[in-house]
Design a protein that fits this description.
alpha/beta; Rossmann fold; Helicase, Ruva Protein, domain 3; five-stranded parallel beta sheet; 46% helix; globular
Length: 317
Amino acid sequence: MSAEPTPASRRSTANLVRLFRGLLDEAEGIFYGQRTVVTLALTGVLADGHLLLEDHPGTGKTLLASTLAHLLGLGFRRVQFTSDLLPADILGSQVYDSTEGTFRFVPGPVFTPFLLADEINRAPPRTQSALLEVMDERQVSVDGVTHPLPRPFVVVATQNPGDQTGTYPLPESQLDRFLLRLELGYPDVEREKDLWGGEDPRERLLRTPPCTDAETLTAAQATVRAMTVSEALLDYVARLVARTRSAPSLTPGLSPRAGRALVAAARAHAFLNGRGAPWPDDVKAVFVAVAAHRLGRAGVASTAAELTALLETTTAR
């Protein structure tokens, strides 16, 4: 069980690492041992990025999001995306105040540290696009007035496979706002039997106290951003990015923003593993999750397979 969080100003980097590794252990226990998925999800949050969770209904996408929000000690709002959802239902709108004779802005559910956009691809493109400014600039603009969002700010979106009824594909510009895309998959037989016959993971989550708070998460994110990246590692990332641009099936390849995302995710992965700087192994661990959804025009699964092969044939120097 986690100790009561202490102020971030009193935490050393080593203490921050221990804290978030403890959070990772708690999350894995609730999420039935899927440590790789949980590690990548927490990596995305520590890198100050947004997450896209894609898989079939019932595989635990919403549970993973709510587990992260609870253990991080962040305010949490869930929006169920549907075909009739409007941008104002997410962002907020101007409402006339008859007593004052003026309009005032009523914030929407996006004004929260942790937003779960559930089944995002069931909403039409107009509503999906409402999140573009939110995710990129952490602000909402309504009637020419800009409203800043709280920090930290994390969007976790879930979506069902695109071949299911009533879904609208996310455009490339929207996909590019997500730092990582994760597939949860089915648990192995033993874990699934534990799920059926054991304690409901939501009940375990309810009796598990938060491991940290917004201030401490912000401090950890700042530590991750401040990590030094060696020239050799930047050269390795550059060669990976260049190879995606020269592969015919991946053209035009990863953008400069995608390369920056890859470095950010590698930093966060190194932090979780107690390293002061990212190694090539950190780049390898996050590469497919960072890149596949940005290049998945021929299908994310086939793109992921090609990226894995590309990774195996590109050596770090």
